Amino acid sequence: MRLRTFAAGVALAGTVSGTAIAFFDVLSKEPVPPELAQAGSWMPQRPEAPRSLDIPLSLPATAWVEDTPGFGPLPLLQAAVVDRPMQAIEPPLLTWSRDISSGETLGSLLSEAGLAGADRAEVALALGAEYDLRRLRPGNSVTVVSTMDGSPRTVSLAVEDGVRIEVLFGEQVSTQVVAPDPEMVTLAGEAVIDTSIFAALDNAGIPARFAVDLAQMLGGTVDFRREMAGGETLRLLWRETRVGDDKIGQPDLAFAALEIGDSLYEIVWPDDGSGQATIYVDGEVLRVFAQPVEGARLSSVFGRRTHPAYGNVRMHTGVDFAATSGTPVRTTAPGRVSFIGWRGGYGRVVEISHGSETMTRYAHLSAVPEGLTQGQLVAAGDVIGRVGATGTATGPNLHYEVLVDGRPTDPLSDDRLAEAAENEVDDTAALLRLTAARALLTENLDSEIAQTTTERL
């Protein structure tokens, strides 16, 4: 039915079209140009029938329709799924840090940091396993890292020489000691002495404690009060151990040059830990000397003083060097061990005989090496004990005496010990050390001057 309707429509459309063409043809009064009539009668030629090509086609006998691969629907693409666990979102952390002040305890700081009582007890127990908490001093710092609800993650205690003890909270509480990786830095400075060596060093920004080292080394050679008129130039080269910008421990002198009158006094300290230093006058070896305690502070001089323990005025028969307990004590000159033991207020003592007239005494020691025996020969710089506070002492220090014919004399001014300390020295090697020290001093002083000039510009 639909086909018949469609055909009738086509016939009707053809009749109408033909009628319209005829109508417009009648209306047209202008004759059709021959060229247009010829173009209108043009018809395309019919294409030729294709010629058949006889091309033999042979298929292998084993080719069967069922052997041809089938073409089924393509499989849907599958998205690769990686089995990765979701990363846990770390909660925000809070960091609290403060130095310990005088009179404060570790517990009070941890409480201020917001730690609960059980956590404070656990931290104290963990830190105490690695460090004696009785040694805490003002300036030690505590750092606490915790979550927003106050649960600790890490607690760090910074102690001496850049060492940190860290308590880590996880499935189990663990403790680790983090030691710094120090760097040795060499520095140089120059000072003009007007009133005292101590004041000159302090004004020049050089560690004033070096005045003690110079007094020990030159006390038996130079009378500072009489020979120095003021205006003398002192040049120093020293070494500092640093971790970043922080200084670790105490600085050590490496070289000193002091002009007094027409004489040049120079001292070269070794870097091999022997403690033996060589003193030169005008470029020639004078003697070799070993300080009893390296880097100590001169806390009391020879002469009458108010006794720190008894409070009355008494004669102080030696000099005291304040230092940390356990600091090595070294012999100042070669000799023979004449006594090891206890002497009343002196506490534990070691005495060294330097010939028939001179003897040195080292008192308030905390310990003596196991191998040290009476009658044993020792060289300058040998360790014969450790700084302590035995006997009548208000704190760790070395009481150092020099006795001549049994009578105490000022260790920093008497020259008889210097005579006892004289020994054979390889002059060639000693002069080579002096030349190297002078060159290093000049190099570092030039560097300091250049840096200061640049900063000013």
Automatic annotation (TrEMBL):
Under the heading Gene3D superfamilies, the entry gives: 3.10.450.350, Glucose Permease (Domain IIA)
Q: Which cofactor does it need?
A: Zn(2+)
The signal sequence is 1-22
CDD domains for this protein: M23_peptidase (cd12797)
Molecular function as annotated in GO = metal ion binding; metalloendopeptidase activity
| InterPro entries tied to this protein | Cell_wall_metabolism_enzyme (IPR050570), Dup_hybrid_motif (IPR011055), M23ase_b-sheet_dom (IPR016047)
The answer on whether this UniProt entry bears the keyword Protease reads yes
- Enumerate the spans annotated as M23ase beta-sheet core domain: 314-411
SUPFAM superfamilies, per the entry: Duplicated hybrid motif
Tell me the protein's name: Peptidase family M23
Q: Which species?
A: Lentibacter algarum
